[in-house]
Each structure stands twice: as C-alpha cells, then as structure tokens.
UniProtKB/TrEMBL annotation:
It holds the Pfam family SecB. This is Protein-export protein SecB. GO terms for molecular function: unfolded protein binding. Its main location: cytoplasm. The keyword Ion transport does not apply. It is found in: Cytoplasm. One of the proteins required for the normal export of preproteins out of the cell cytoplasm. It is a molecular chaperone that binds to a subset of precursor proteins, maintaining them in a translocation-competent state. It also specifically binds to its receptor SecA. Keywords: Chaperone, Cytoplasm, Protein transport, Translocation, Transport. Homotetramer, a dimer of dimers. One homotetramer interacts with 1 SecA dimer. The gene is secB. Belongs to the SecB family.
Length: 156
C-alpha cells in the first residue's frame, strides 16, 4: 500500500481491522399463508442508523455499527421484518476535530456495500424480491443528526 495517504507520522488515517455481522434477524410473521396470498410487491419501509463507540478507553480503535431495518407490508399485512447490525472495527488516526465525521461518514461508507448485499441476500433467500438499498448520503445523515449545540464527540 502506498504511503501517499498516510499522516505525517506515517500512519494511515483510517484502517479497517475487521468487519462482521453483529446481529441479523429475518422474520416472516404470516408464513406460510403470506406466500399464497401475496399478489403484489410489498411496500418496504427502511430505517438506517450509524453508531460508533470506542473499543477501549483512551485508544484510537472504534467499533462502527451500521444498523438497517426493513419492514415490508402489503396494505396492513406484514410480509417480513429484517434487521441487520453490520459492524467494523477501525483504527482511526486523525485529529480530534475530524474524528466524528470520519466515524459517522467515512467508516459507514466502507461498510455499506457489504451490508447492502447481506440484506438483499437474506430477503431473497426468505422468499421475497431482494431489497436493494440505494446509495446512502452519509454526509446528509450525519448532518441531520447534529443539532445546533452538537459537540465534537470522542465516543460519537
């Protein structure tokens, strides 16, 4: 790997140490009847959140969790509920003022394609059309979470 992206002290600003599925749930509350009665494509409501926390106090290693929930219904009849917490452990070497946007924008941007594939696979394997998430604007998501009194957070 090239050192052109390294900090002046020679370390990479963001290093993804490991990524993993922390939690995955897929429920079909009306099975098997829902598969017989389903005549139209379900409406899927999505919720997405990003959380970050230090792995050890005072260190520069953080767990970033991309949490996605998909609720599918036809009318008021639930078809499926999918919940995914996809995480990465990152070593972050940036100045404190850049920590929050790195944790809540750049890190989830790296995790997103893998979480997107898992959600598509689990919904398809569950007997429904795959849920294909559109690209997420993590900058807008991060900015929407920040209030006027938001502070730079070490534990985001």
């Amino acid at each position: 790997m090239s050192d052109q992206n390294a900090n002046p002290n020679g370390t990479m600003p963001i290093q993804l140490n490991i990524q993993y599925t922390k939690d995955l749930s897929f429920e079909v509350p009306g099975a098997p009847e829902i598969f017989v009665s389903l005549k139209e494509q379900p409406r899927v409501d999505l919720a997405l959140d990003v959380q970050a926390r230090p792995v050890e106090s005072g260190g520069n290693v953080y767990e970033v969790s991309l949490q996605i929930r998909a609720d599918a219904k036809v009318g008021e009849t639930p078809c499926f509920i999918a919940e995914l917490a996809y995480c990465g452990v990152f070593t972050i070497n940036v100045p404190q003022e850049h920590l929050e946007p790195v944790l809540l924008v750049e890190c989830p941007r790296l995790l997103f394609p893998f979480a997107r594939n898992i959600l598509a696979d689990v919904t398809r394997d569950g007997g429904f059309p795959p849920v294909l998430l559109a690209p997420i604007d993590f900058v807008a998501l991060w900015q929407s979470r920040r209030g006027p009194n938001a502070q730079q957070v070490g534990n985001a």
